[in-house]
Amino acid sequence: MSEIIKVGIADINIVSPPNTIRTTGLGSCVGVILFDQVKKIAGMAHIMLPDSSLSKTPTLNEGKYADTAIKSLYDMLIKSGANGKGLKAKIAGGAQMFKFTSGSEMMRIGPRNVERVKEELSSLKIPLLASDVGGSSGRTIEFNPENTVLTIKTVNAGTKVI
Amino acid sequence: MDFLKIQPIHLDVLREIGNIGAGHAATALSTMLNKAVDMKVPSVNVISFEEISEMVGGAENVVASVFLRIVGDAPGCMFFMLPVEQAEQLLEDLLVGQTVNLSSGDESDIALSALQEVGNILSGSYLTSFSDFTGLNLQPSVPATSIDMAGAILSFGLFEISAVSDYAIVIDTAFTDIERQDEVKGHFFLLPDPLSFSKIFHALGVPLDE
């Protein structure tokens, strides 16, 4: 019996076959998947904001920010037996749900999230194999650690796999 | 913004904002449609980000929405959200004689523009009464529309809040058709920015204990 592991907003989780892992309703948030194809173990983070320096809370919710979420997902995978050098990434999300004429920074949060995720991956030397980012559609994504396929569903642009 | 300092009186004050604001918006909607529109007692909740999506049928549920930023003394976000079928019904009532299809992905410009205008009028009347009630200077941004997953849309209103907290205070008012009470027509969500709460409470004479 396979299960679907759920990842909430600002949440991180890991998965191994036959289970799959999924997060729903990504808007300007970005879903980051790290996986070890040989050991067949993967993890997903649903990040909201680009950088933990934005945080104004006394306790840091690591899953919320691109920089801290990717590091903590990386550590979780290593602890569960993944090979750090064999980790690869796929990402999806970072849409601009609403178009405004005023180009305020808040409205650009999707692209900023994507930029920060890419920086963090390259600083950890994790190759980014595939991405489906930007646009103006919400996404629901599901990753299968068995065949490393990421399925992306949208309301307006159908379903695709990367 | 410390949620622990919030007393029942503060939630009552926020509920009253929802009551007055949505009351005016319901009247405007009723005038536009030329039929009676009823509204439910507003709910004010301190809830997690996940739970906000649950209020409109889950993160993946497709909704029609109008979003605007409130600028001025107490900035925040406002959403007018309704199920796609309800939005189509509402627009067909307005654009007499036209069939409106919002779910196909090739929805007509006139339908989207009408939806935006409805959102504009309703949130404008909500905001005006919010402003009159509190004496705060509040203005709406130009509204934007989107027909997509509720979770993806709502998370857009959470960025200001998410840097400060994992929870948001949501003032939610649901509308119903007076003839079909069980059927919810739409929701108004008001999400003040964290720093706006103390200004709102202060303006209404119930400051938070510092």
UniProtKB/TrEMBL annotation, chain A:
It is an enzyme of class 3 (hydrolase). This is Probable chemoreceptor glutamine deamidase CheD. Its EC number is 3.5.1.44. Probably deamidates glutamine residues to glutamate on methyl-accepting chemotaxis receptors (MCPs), playing an important role in chemotaxis. Belongs to the CheD family. PANTHER family: CHEMORECEPTOR GLUTAMINE DEAMIDASE CHED-RELATED. It catalyses: L-glutaminyl-[protein] + H2O = L-glutamyl-[protein] + NH4(+). It comes from the Bacteria. The keyword Hydrolase applies.
TrEMBL record, chain B:
Coiled coil: none annotated. It comes from the Bacteria. Pfam families: CheC. Keywords: Chemotaxis, Hydrolase. Residues 9-45, 110-147 form the CheC-like protein domain. InterPro entries: CheC, CheC-like_sf, CheZ_family_phosphatases. Gene3D superfamilies: CheC-like (3.40.1550.10). PANTHER family: PROTEIN PHOSPHATASE CHEZ (PTHR43693). This is Chemotaxis protein CheC.
